[in-house]
Amino acid sequence: MIQRLDHFTIVTDQLEATRAFYVDLLGxxxxxxxxxxxxxxxxxxxxxxVLHVVEVNQMPMPRRGxxxxxxxxxxxxxxxxxxxxxxxxxxxxxxxxxxxRTWQLFFNDPNGIEIELDFSETETPPEDWRSxxxxxx
Length: 137
Known about the structure:
It is built from two helices and eight strands; from the N terminus they run βαββββαβββ. The chain is α/β, with parallel strands linked by helices. A four-stranded mixed sheet has the order 1-4-3-2, covered by helices on one side. It has a four-stranded mixed sheet with strand order 5-8-7-6, covered by helices on one side.
């Protein structure tokens, strides 16, 4: 039945910080959004809306759901790390276990949601990558 992942939706009381994080820092782009009766935006990767952001005045209590993290396939490991560091984003870099040793980069968005970017095992990490195996700035 399921063909592919379509999108995630997050709720935020920090719409501009969330937009800036995903667009300015991670390279998504804003795009067309149906005229929903609540404010927000849709963020695209290439021609697909993958992250729907709903703005609220106050975060719901109790918070809904149990999303552990969002993972995206990415390219440009070293440049991505440098960009995240330039924004003082805390991050962690590990290699996945097993035969295919992809690079996994973890960090949080402005809403505290953990993001995982996966990179090909053939990408070259920064020279100090081992120091990134724990949370650092």
